[in-house]
Amino acid sequence: MRATGRTGARVAGAAAGALLTLTAVAAAPAQAAGYRYWSFWESSGGKPWAYATQGPATARPADGDAIGFRFAISQGTSDTSRPALAPDFAGICGGVEKKDGGKRVAVVVDFGGPADAPPGETPPAEPIKVGCAEVSEDATGAEALAAVAKPLRYDSAAMLCGIAGYPARGCGEQVAEQAPGSAAPTAPTPAAAPAHGGGPSFGVLAGGAAVLALGGAAVWKARRRG
């Protein structure tokens, strides 16, 4: 019984330590400026850009909709940069006739500025690319994008990494905060950012919460055995 009690105490201590670690991570000042990735935006009926709630591989825009992509360094959905060009379907697809069995989707690709570019790379000379994608009625946002901005580059987890060949390398890297007057940010590390953006930092906290849940279950089982 004493051994079981010690086991329960050790598990409880480990869970408490994990809780303190997670709390410290959440409360400490952010050490990273954010993540460098392509965010995904949607617009229907001429409305302003809205942050997409799903990735381009599953989103299915309707005829007359616009989709946008912006490459930038962002900390999450609250500060993610929108495409600089408005979702002007009439201006992009106004001269394109709708065909039977198909749809027209206005596509806006904003490559961002030099400050968002990965080390050693430069944004395309044309900062914004637009096109009217003529695709089948059931086509996804990814298919509409591919119709106007090839080549696309994905990683092994199907995350959208490059549009029209930019950037040539990397995918959703974490970018360390740069102190005033310092050299370039430290080398980035891979981040589990979703294809349409989102908050990778939330994923880190969610992972920590999962660890705590498992630890809590272990404590409960140890107490039952005791």
Written overview of the protein:
The chain has 226 residues and is of the alpha+beta class. The protein is built from four helices and eight strands. Strands 1, 2, 3, 4, 5 and 8 form a six-stranded mixed beta sheet that branches. Strands 6-7 form a two-stranded antiparallel ribbon. Strand 1 and strand 2 form a beta hairpin. The termini are close together. The C terminus is likely disordered.
Write the layout of secondary structure elements.
Blueprint: H1 2-27, E1 32-43, E2 50-51, E3 66-74, H2 89-93, E4 102-110, E5 128-136, H3 141-148, E6 152-154, E7 160-163, E8 173-176, H4 200-225
Parallel strand pairs: 3-4
Antiparallel strand pairs: 1-2, 1-3, 1-8, 4-5, 6-7
Provide the low-confidence segments as ranges.
9-32, 179-226
- Measured distance between first and last alpha carbons: 6 Å
Largest sheet: 6 strands, mixed
Report the principal-axis shape.
Answer: globular
Helix content: 25-40%
β-sheet strand percentage: 15-25%
Radius of gyration: 22 Å
Number of strands: 8
Number of helices: 4
Series of secondary-structure elements, N-terminal to C-terminal: HEEEHEEHEEEH
- Structural class designation: alpha+beta
User: Taking all residues together, what is the mean pLDDT?
Assistant: 74
